[in-house]
Amino acid sequence: MATKLMQAVQYNSYGEGVSGLKQLAITQLIGIQKGALHALYFPRKFPHIPCTDVAGEVVEVGPQPGLDIGERTLKYGGGLSEFAVASESLTVARPSEVSTAEASGLPIAGLTARNALTEIGGAKLDGTGEPKNALVTSASGGVGVFAVQLAKLGNNHVTATCGARNIDFVKGLGADEVLDYKTPEGASLKSPSGRKYDAVINFTAGIPWSTFDPNLSENGIVVDLATGLSSMLTFELKKLTFSKKQLVPYFVTVKREGLEHLAQLVKDGKLKTIIDSKFPLNKAEYAWAKSIDGHATGKIIVEQ
Ligand SMILES: NC(=O)c1ccc[n+]([C@@H]2O[C@H](COP(=O)([O-])OP(=O)(O)OC[C@H]3O[C@@H](n4cnc5c(N)ncnc54)[C@H](OP(=O)(O)O)[C@@H]3O)[C@@H](O)[C@H]2O)c1
């Protein structure tokens, strides 16, 4: 095992925001060179190197078989550091057509969109399922851009919400109709063509059930990725009352199979990682601040 020093970004506790991030040199373990960012998972131990999504090249391997030195990979879990430890079970080969930056934007965001659509939303992404009317909220964000593209791969009709500046961009991703969230129509989530939604893939915090309800089809379901207390309560209430319309809080589970599927779609030109901006590792604080600000269009990438 190598014992060189490497550059890394760590934080020591919750709640300090960007000012809690520290640039420092720490002992390098073993792993893959990287360039990545998605943030927000809750560590149980400190100091913690944040960020969950990593892509790079294997530079050293442990005793277990599975990865080869020089192999291009993308993986879930790692951090803002020059090298990251890759668990073989959460790492997949990265096709040469998929750049490090494109791959590093995929894991959490791509899997969240994919799994929310398929596991709860009931959509098929290969066009073999019955087309559904889907609504994707915050469709210009890191996760929403994948949800729109993947829903369209399944031939679904997609209504999307985003800010005015991104309406044409989201239409370019394939959305059939787009609402500006700052207008009364956008806030109501009402489909301009009068459709009722079979599935809402919700990435916007704080939308009450009373807004979703009139827009849902008879068996419509809200897959809530921006889960809070009120969505937990709505979930329980809908279950208790045997409501046909449902709201399901959803947390992504990372599996290799999903990562492989996403990498293949990008390789085949069927899915794009939209990159909002890139920052060098020694400016990771700026990336973090931009992510927290909540106004990115696509993914924020940190590179070394
Ligand atoms: N449950 C899970 O497993 C899971 C996994 C990943 C993410 N998430 C959650 O998914 C949510 C979205 O994450 P993200 O990374 O995609 O967010 P993000 O990248 O920060 O989203 C930013 C985008 O959303 C737009 N936006 C902001 N408020 C909006 C609104 N009210 N309606 C429509 N668009 C709005 C912004 O447009 P403007 O700049 O024009 O305002 C911006 O383009 C977060 O709550 C995150 O925690 C959940």
TrEMBL record:
Transmembrane segments: none
Span of domain Enoyl reductase (ER): 35-302
SMART domains (alphabetical): PKS_ER
Any Pfam family: ADH_zinc_N_2
CDD domains for the chain: MDR1 (cd08267)
Superkingdom as given in the UniProt entry: Eukaryota
GO molecular function: oxidoreductase activity
Protein name as catalogued: Zinc-binding dehydrogenase family oxidoreductase
